């Protein structure tokens, strides 16, 4: 269980980045090192993360959590990035998200090195981003242990949209 | 001193993202947890980072290093982000980079909480990004301890372009 402080640090911004969206700003957590430590250690304890050979961190807020978790767990981390950011031989898929659409790219040589993966991101909304990475891994016959997120927005039902296990620390 | 392994893990991609640019890919470091730990602990030992009240991590590769360093040092971290990413009352400046131009945004309420800052990024090229953050801080009368980077590209002379101290772990 996460302390009540963490939940209170998350700040709502209505109508950002678009009208009708309530943005959950997690920035205040990182301004409070004790809160950040609690989040990282709690997420590192999630079964999905413990089982995986490697972490896939999602561009860009997933990098923030993924990096500290990778450091703390001494686990390899690879990156799922937006277009134009990663060099080399890439694999990609496009996806729809809560607002708009985008695509994610991973390096083939990075995926080749490991067998099972945990996806790390800040927030599970409709699940489009994680589903995109899941489908890339499925095409490569890789094992996906699941998705580990700090925040799950229950109302958007992303968990049902994904066909993989989900560990979330905080629900709204 | 950093071990020779770290330098060897960094992979050159010529003509990425544009012709004439040799992209230094640091992804292999994060696929090797021992190498990642060595990088984080070595950067955390930099005088600039030790002196600062808070870390400013630059979108997006700066997040990866900044996050693990913030976790390891138990220091607050705030984010300098590309347009459209941060909610709330923001302060911004535009800058020129090695290829193209962009602007960075920071949250005013985050900057208000701390007095002195260390900028963390993966790479110092011409120094445009760090200079942009430095100018934002100067306008707010905040103290900037300097810039901490993993890689410094000596030829591009970014250090001379910046008027702040620079700590780099690896030079090319």
Structure, described:
The structure is a homodimer of 172-residue chains. Chain A has a five-stranded parallel β-sheet with strand order 4-3-7-8-9. In chain A, strands 1-2 form a two-stranded antiparallel ribbon. The first copy, chain A, has a two-stranded antiparallel ribbon with strand order 5-6. Chain A is built from eight helices and nine strands. The first copy, chain A, is globular, with a radius of gyration of 15 Å. The mean pLDDT of chain A is 95. Chain A has a single domain, classed as Rossmann fold, CATH 3.40.50.2020. Chain A is of the alpha/beta class and 172 residues long.
**How many strand units of chain A?**
9
Helical segment count of chain A: 8
* Order of H and E elements of chain A: HEEHHHEHEEEHEHEHE
Instruction: Briefly note the CATH topology name of chain A.
Output: Rossmann fold
* Structural domain tally of chain A: 1
Average per-residue pLDDT of chain A, rounded, comes to: 95
What does the largest sheet of chain A look like?
5 strands, parallel
Largest interface, and how many residues on either side?
A: A-B, 45 and 45 residues
Low-confidence stretches of chain A: none
Structural class determined from secondary elements of chain A: alpha/beta
Helix percentage range of chain A: 25-40%
Terminal residue distance of chain A: 15 Å
Shape of chain A: globular
| The first-level CATH class name of chain A | Alpha Beta
The gyration radius over C-alpha positions of chain A equals: 15 Å
| Biggest sheet: strand arrangement of chain A | 4-3-7-8-9
The oligomerization state is homodimer
The CATH architecture designation of chain A is 3-Layer(aba) Sandwich
What portion of residues of chain A belong to β-strands? Answer: 25-35%
């Amino acid at each position: 269980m996460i302390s009540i402080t963490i939940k209170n640090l998350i700040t709502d911004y209505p109508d950002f980045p678009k009208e009708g969206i309530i943005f959950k700003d997690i920035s205040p957590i990182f301004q409070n090192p004790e809160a950040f430590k609690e989040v990282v250690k709690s997420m590192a304890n999630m079964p999905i993360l413990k089982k995986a050979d490697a972490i896939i961190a999602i561009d860009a807020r997933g990098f923030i959590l993924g990096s500290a978790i990778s450091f703390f767990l001494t686990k390899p981390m690879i990156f799922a990035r937006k277009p134009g950011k990663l060099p080399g031989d890439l694999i990609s898929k496009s996806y729809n998200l809560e607002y708009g659409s985008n695509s994610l790219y991973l390096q083939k040589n990075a995926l080749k090195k490991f067998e099972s993966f945990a996806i790390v991101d800040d927030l599970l909304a409709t699940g489009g981003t994680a589903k995109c990475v899941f489908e890339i891994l499925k095409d490569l016959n890789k094992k996906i242990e699941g998705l580990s997120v700090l925040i799950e927005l229950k109302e958007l039902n992303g968990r049902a949209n994904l066909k993989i296990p989900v560990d979330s620390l905080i629900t709204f």
